[in-house]
From TrEMBL:
Keywords: Aminopeptidase, Hydrolase, Protease
Record gene name: pip
Domain AB hydrolase-1 span(s) in chain numbering: 28-265
GO molecular function, one term: aminopeptidase activity
Record has DNA-binding as a keyword: no
Organism of derivation: Thermus aquaticus
Family indicated by similarity: Belongs to the peptidase S33 family.
Entry-linked Pfam families: Abhydrolase_6
Entry EC no(s): 3.4.11.5
InterPro entries on file: AB_hydrolase_1 (IPR000073), AB_hydrolase_fold (IPR029058), AB_hydrolase_sf (IPR050266), Peptidase_S33 (IPR002410)
UniProt-recorded name of the protein: Proline iminopeptidase
Domain of life of the organism encoding this protein: Bacteria
Length: 280
């Protein structure tokens, strides 16, 4: 299989990119979660489903294997991530492409879809759209009663437990799934900096509710979410309703449904890919 790996400059950033598959196949840009994650786990988990695509996995600015950037809030905004995505597509010679966004990456995908007419459609996996809602879920995971202020909810939750422990409670329906995910991540050897998450926090990310911007798209959008993904479900139902998009809820699965329920996820994901209408 064709595979090109390297670094591509996009304005102020330099992105680590893995360009995989037939260069003449439909292009799919993969946006990982975070802020501050990397694309390794998505390629490991989803690569076999995307063999009919030219799949472009990349680590977002200052994250994962991409070159580090200073912890400057000016450098870490949704606008910057959208611009990076479009510049990357331009650098690769892509006038038309589809998007696959996971978690926080789904938010970036939605904004790229809203701005750029060359996007043929998008799949949103466990989308993070309302950070005030997510802050409430974190407070609940910490055993607290949420308040009205999302940043207060976040602070109170983090006073009770480490961030990883709280997210683990929401993301993984079973210890087996968590351990398998950790095995994959640890095997990657990728340890990204914390600068993106801290900079987005300073920029007020946890007050961002993208819900009012969700309107039906003329291009196909599909949502795949785990029924036990406490970071995205059941809010993903609201997202689907506003987008007028099909939603595929994978029973007994969390934020990484291909790990928890591979057979059910595979069926749902292939249906979502078909909805893009870009398969051969």
């Amino acid at each position: 299989m064709r595979e090109e790996i390297g670094y591509i400059p996009v304005g102020e950033a330099e992105l680590y990119v893995e360009d995989v598959g037939d260069p003449h196949a439909p292009a799919l840009l993969v946006l990982h979660g975070g802020p501050g994650g990397n694309a390794y786990a998505l390629r490991e988990g989803l690569g076999e489903y995307l063999e009919g695509f030219r799949a472009i996995y990349f680590d977002q600015r200052g994250s994962g294997r991409s070159l580090e950037l200073p912890e400057d809030p000016r450098l870490f905004t949704i606008d910057a991530l959208v611009e990076d995505t479009l510049l990357l597509a331009e650098a690769l010679g892509l006038e038309r492409f589809a998007l696959l966004g996971h978690g926080f990456g789904a938010l970036v995908a939605l904004e790229v879809l809203r701005r750029y007419p060359g996007v043929e459609g998008a799949i949103l996996l466990g989308p993070w759209v309302s950070f005030p809602w997510l802050a409430q879920r974190l407070a609940e995971a910490a055993g607290l009663t949420p308040e009205g202020d999302p940043e207060a909810n976040l602070r109170a939750a983090l006073e009770r437990a480490e961030p990883k422990a709280l997210f683990d409670r929401l993301m993984f329906p079973s210890p087996r799934g968590r351990l398998e995910y950790e095995w994959v991540v640890e095997g990657s050897g990728v340890v990204g900096p914390d600068a993106p998450a801290r900079a987005f926090l300073r920029n007020g990310l946890w007050r961002l509710d993208y819900t009012p911007y969700l309107t039906p798209s003329r291009r196909p959008v599909a949502i795949v979410v785990g029924e036990k993904d406490g970071t995205s479900y059941p809010y993903a139902e609201e997202v689907a309703e506003r987008l007028k998009a099909p939603i595929h809820v994978v029973p007994e699965a969390g934020h990484f449904p291909w790990i928890d329920q591979p057979e059910a996820f595979g069926q749902a994901f292939l249906e979502a890919l078909a909805a893009l209408r870009v398969l051969h």
